[in-house]
């Protein structure tokens, strides 16, 4: 038997004795959560009791108080008028409820608003499964397997459509005025448009704020990845409140620097070393790639630009007989390689690759594995928004010693950060 201290710790007076009484010996899943199980009966009774309490407050008298009821009718007032049936989906079952009515049709239940056919818990389950990459049909099968709920793909699609307004608001929300570091990248996916399946580019903008934490600034879709569309992205970000970016890291898209600097003239553009290495390795035989990568590491880890150029010359001399064009992309993009040599190692590691945004893209791509084709752009944004919310919940500070990095940024970019000194 439970002690008084144990019972006192139980929420809402749910003592062990009360729970045992409710279960009445039920021990199996079917007995508790099945069609005639205690969970379904208890859910029905609880909601109907709460609805009756709401009606009591609405009318000003309790049910079965006949004198008050008759007097109200004589006075032309409001009174109970039976009930109507309503089917409500929960996480474990579908429950038929009796919703009380009043004669004047003024009763608006708060616990189950008009038009509600499912509880928030079932919506959260569906959205979590959808955001995890499951298709609507797979979600329907999972709900039936786990909870015995027969939810059609159309019903699930309606639930996911309920977040479209949240997606719109998120994509148009104000952003910070200044970001120390930003990353821009994109990847391709298949979307149906005008009866045809076309390959589109999902544009992703990621930034590190002044507190050292990552933020996704937005998602956009276009037919191709181009500098002109990136300019549209930058223009939108300006309209949402972004005034300045100190350092931006991207791949080597042609024309990107011009588009970036037309929107943010003082922004330093750092090319992604990983992308440069990938372009380099495309020219190198598989058997030589490990040795070539080791030699190039001496270039991008050099303590300063002068030493980096010297090491680049060394790499070129070592391999020019086999791969004469191997270092050409490095020299062509050298002005976008140079910026990282001005920063301390911790900050340099953050900006010299686009790893932060590539990590985000991997998470986004993972969620589309089961979707070879999206029916429209809205479906893309729904899934990407839910996936991004899940990814953001796990993000931590970008650099362990962010305070030290921020001090250096204040010195290198005087007056451009908030609370500068």
List the main descriptive attributes of the protein structure presented here.
disordered N terminus; single chain; five-stranded mixed beta sheet; 7 strands; alpha/beta; elongated; 3 domains; 20 helices; two-stranded antiparallel sheet; 421 residues
Describe what you observe in this structure:
With 421 residues, the chain is α/β, with parallel strands linked by helices. It folds into three domains: 15-112, no CATH class; 118-162; 176-412. The protein is built from 20 helices and seven strands. Strands 5-4-3-6-7 form a five-stranded mixed β-sheet, with helices on both faces. The chain has a two-stranded antiparallel ribbon with strand order 1-2. A hairpin with a 2-residue loop joins strand 3 (178-193) and strand 4 (196-208). Helix 6 packs across helix 19 (377-392). It starts with a helix and ends in a 9-residue tail after the last helix.
What is this structure, in a nutshell?
This protein has 421 residues and is an alpha/beta fold. The protein is 48% helix and 16% strand. The chain has helices spanning 4-8, 16-23, 29-33, 38-59, 66-74, 120-131, 136-147, 153-161, 164-171, 227-239, 256-263, 273-281, 289-300, 305-319, 328-332, 334-337, 345-351, 355-367, 377-392, 402-412, and strands spanning 80-89, 94-102, 178-193, 196-208, 214-222, 244-250, 268-271.
Please state the overall shape, judged from the principal axes of the Cα atoms.
Answer: elongated
Quote the distance from N terminus to C terminus. Answer: 66 Å
Assess the beta-strand content as a share of residues: 15-25%
Give the count of structural domains.
3
Total of DSSP H or I helical runs spanning 4+ residues: 20
Give the assembly state of these chains. Answer: single chain
Order of helices and strands: HHHHHEEHHHHEEEHEHEHHHHHHHHH
What is the residue-averaged pLDDT? 82
Sheet with the most strands: spatial strand order: 5-4-3-6-7
Unreliably modeled segments: 1-12
Overall strand count: 7
The Cα radius of gyration reads: 31 Å
Helix content: 40-55%
Biggest sheet features? 5 strands, mixed
- Broad structural category: alpha/beta
């Amino acid at each position: 038997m439970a002690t008084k201290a144990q019972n006192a710790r139980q929420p809402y007076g749910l003592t062990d004795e009360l729970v045992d009484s409710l279960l009445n010996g039920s021990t199996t899943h079917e007995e508790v959560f099945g069609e005639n199980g205690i969970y379904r009966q208890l859910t029905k009774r609880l909601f109907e009791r709460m609805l009756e309490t709401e009606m009591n407050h609405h009318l000003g008298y309790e049910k079965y108080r006949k004198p008050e009821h008759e007097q109200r009718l004589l006075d032309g007032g409001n009174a109970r008028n039976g009930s109507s049936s309503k089917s409500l989906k929960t996480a474990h079952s579908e429950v038929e409820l009796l919703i009380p009515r009043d004669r004047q049709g003024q009763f608006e239940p708060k616990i189950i608003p008009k038009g509600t056919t499912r509880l928030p818990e079932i919506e959260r389950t569906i959205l979590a499964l959808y955001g995890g990459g499951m298709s609507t049909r797979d979600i329907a099968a999972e709900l039936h397997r786990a909870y015995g709920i027969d939810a059609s793909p159309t019903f699930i699609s309606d639930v996911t459509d309920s977040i479209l307004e949240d997606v719109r608001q998120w994509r148009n929300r104000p952003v910070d005025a200044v970001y120390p570091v930003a990353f821009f990248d994109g990847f391709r996916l298949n979307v149906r448009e005008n009866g045809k399946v076309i390959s589109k580019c999902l544009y992703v903008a990621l930034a590190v704020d002044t507190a050292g934490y990552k933020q996704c600034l937005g998602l956009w879709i276009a037919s191709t990845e181009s500098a002109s569309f990136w300019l549209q992205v930058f223009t939108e970000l300006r309209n949402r409140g972004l005034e300045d970016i100190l350092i931006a890291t991207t791949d080597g898209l042609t024309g990107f620097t011009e588009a970036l600097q037309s929107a943010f003239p003082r922004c330093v553009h750092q090319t992604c070393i990983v992308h440069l290495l990938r372009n380099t390795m495309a020219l190198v035989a598989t058997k030589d790639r490990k040795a070539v990568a080791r030699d190039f590491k001496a270039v991008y880890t050099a303590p300063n630009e002068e030493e980096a150029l010297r090491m680049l010359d060394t790499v070129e001399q070592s391999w020019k007989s086999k791969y004469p064009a191997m270092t050409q992309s490095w020299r062509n993009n050298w002005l976008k390689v140079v910026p990282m040599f001005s920063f301390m190692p911790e900050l340099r590691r953050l900006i010299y690759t686009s790893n932060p945004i590539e990590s985000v893209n991997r998470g986004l791509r993972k969620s589309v594995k089961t979707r070879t084709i999206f029916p429209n752009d809205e479906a893309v944004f729904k899934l990407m928004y839910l996936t991004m919310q899940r990814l953001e919940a796990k993000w931590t500070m970008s650099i362990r010693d962010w305070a030290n990095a921020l001090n250096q940024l204040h010195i290198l970019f005087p007056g451009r950060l908030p609370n500068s000194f």
